[in-house]
Design brief:
Blueprint lengths: L1 H14 L2 E2 H10 L2 H4 L7 H10 L3 E7 L7 E6 L1 H15 L8 H6 L7 H27 L8 H29 L19
Antiparallel strand pairs: 1-3, 2-3
Helix pairs in contact: 1-4, 1-5, 7-8
């Protein structure tokens, strides 16, 4: 939630006065749902919660025709301080997001070797598709209207994915070569079988 809080506070500060639809549209245009885990459905709830915490201020609510009412927000002084605190905290520290794959990989011996190798190769294929998508976005006309650092973020995602693809391929080969999963001394441990 801290990434979502930071991004919403930052966007409101940049775009204010702004309503939730504009914040949502901007975050989705950055593909923040993919790399920052900002869920589109949670944006309106987060805006209301930030307003309740007095980090944002409701400026106006308008309704045009049969459309849902739109509330316009501005950031408060308290919100600016919270944004700066979150921003600096995220710049100066490294946080590894929980990855269900890492949890699953810790039980590698529970899968047949052929399935584990196939799953790693499939992961590499999915990562390659993600790279292609990001490269397409970087080359698209609409990217010309975005800050250059948005492309830099996507380049970082591409390089991370390329490194993971190389790792998946290398580990899949080691699995297929029947490289032992456990040191020789651990082979006799209860519950551990080198499959």
């Amino acid at each position: 939630m801290s990434a979502t809080r930071m991004m919403i506070l930052g966007l409101v500060q940049w775009m204010q006065p702004v309503h939730g639809y504009e914040v949502r549209r901007e975050l989705l245009s950055w593909s923040a749902d993919k790399w920052a885990n900002v869920q589109p459905g949670s944006i309106y709830h987060a805006l209301r919660k930030l307003a309740e915490e007095e980090l944002l201020r409701e400026v106006a609510t308008e309704q045009v025709g049969a459309r849902p009412a739109r509330t316009t927000y501005e950031i408060t002084e308290k919100g600016v301080a919270e944004f700066q605190s979150l921003l600096r905290g995220n710049w100066w520290s490294i946080a590894t997001p929980p990855d269900p794959f890492m949890a699953a990989f810790s039980f590698l011996p529970a899968l047949p070797r052929s399935e584990a190798a196939a799953a790693l190769r499939n992961r590499a294929v999915q990562l390659t598709a993600g790279i292609t998508q990001l490269q397409t976005l970087i080359g698209a006309d609409w990217a010309d209207n975005k800050p250059v650092y948005v492309s830099w973020m996507w380049e970082l995602s591409i390089e991370r994915a390329e490194a993971e693809i190389r790792w998946c391929e290398r580990i899949a080969e080691q699995i297929e070569k029947n490289e032992p999963y456990f040191p020789a001394a651990a082979k006799d441990s209860p519950g551990r079988n080198d499959l």
